[in-house]
Automatic annotation (TrEMBL):
The keyword Transport applies. GO terms for cellular component: plasma membrane. This is Branched-chain amino acid transport system ATP-binding protein. GO terms for molecular function: ATP binding; ATP hydrolysis activity. It comes from Castellaniella defragrans (Alcaligenes defragrans). Keywords: ATP-binding, Cell membrane, Membrane, Nucleotide-binding, Transport. PANTHER family: ABC TRANSPORTER ATP-BINDING PROTEIN, CONSERVED COMPONENT OF ABC TRANSPORTER FOR NATURAL AMINO ACIDS-RELATED. Residues 5-246 form the ABC transporter domain. SUPFAM superfamilies: P-loop containing nucleoside triphosphate hydrolases. InterPro entries: AAA+_ATPase, ABC_AA/LPS_Transport, ABC_transporter-like_ATP-bd, BCA_ABC_TP_C, P-loop_NTPase. CDD domains: ABC_Mj1267_LivG_branched (cd03219).
Length: 254
């Protein structure tokens, strides 16, 4: 497969703490690549560098064959990198549809001079409705955001990311705080999305990771200690020691 994203010898320091330590990572076009690791391994720091929120101290990031290491957040977003966050970031006074329309507007460069005319602009409304349909929220389009359950908030964030027409989806713990039922819905949604999108997934739910991922990279102290298929990573003694402190198999939750 052709690499879409390449991280080469990436380093990020916070004072004396090395959060990203000579990291090499490749995400191929069309795959779901999971980035896992114990708490404090540096996963979210990596995501921040990929989106441009954090600037690396060394190394480079190549996306679609271009060196984007020094690109702004906005330029990366318009190039096709979209991210969801651990903590939901929604406009609570807006409807479900309006939240997604704002992302379509950002991608197209439209200006909202008056909100009501914007709601009648097909070039904004139709892509937003399509994104909502892709995550199973088309029937909630006119509802207030605060009327949604937590799991639906996560689905809405995915719709907002999809409205940016991304080439790469960066998903930071999309199952965080979900009930068992909500997690099952999200896993099914991600399984469908991976057929059409390249995804880099940070997730603590090993059941989801092993069910969804084509490739898994294990991050410990800012370094990738193992990369391979889920089966390969589960068998890796170094990975088992990092997670469990012994050589017991790394398993998903039942």
């Amino acid at each position: 497969m052709k690499p879409l994203l390449s991280v080469e010898h990436l380093v990020k320091r916070f004072g004396g703490l090395v959060a990203t330590n000579d990291l090499n990572l490749t995400v191929n076009q069309g795959e779901l690549h999971a980035l896992i690791g114990p708490n404090g391994a540096g996963k979210t720091t990596v995501m921040g560098q990929l989106t441009g929120e954090l600037r690396p101290d060394a190394g480079r990031i190549v996306f679609g064959g271009e060196d984007i290491t020094n690109w702004t957040i906005a330029r990366r977003a318009l190039a096709g990198i979209a991210r969801s966050y651990q903590i939901t970031q929604l406009l609570k006074d807006f409807s479900v549809l309006e939240n997604v329309m704002l992302m379509v507007q950002a991608r197209l460069g439209h200006s909202f001079r008056c909100w009501k005319p914007a709601l009648r602009q097909r070039e904004l409304v139709e892509p937003a409705l399509q994104a909502l349909d892709s995550v199973g929220l088309a029937d909630r389009a006119r509802d207030d955001v605060m009327a949604l359950a937590h799991g639906e908030h996560r689905q809405l964030e995915l719709a907002m990311a999809l409205a940016m027409a991304p080439r790469l989806l960066l998903l930071d713990e999309p199952l965080a705080g979900m009930s068992q039922g909500e997690s099952a819905v999200m896993i099914d949604l991600l399984s469908r999305l991976k057929r059409h999108h390249t995804i880099l997934l940070v997730e603590h739910d090993m059941q989801a990771v092993f069910a969804l991922a084509d490739q898994v990279s294990v991050l410990v102290y800012g370094q990738a200690i193992s990369t391979g298929t889920p089966a390969h990573v589960q068998r890796d003694p170094e990975v088992r020691r990092a997670y469990l402190g012994d050589d017991q198999p790394l398993r998903s939750a039942a």
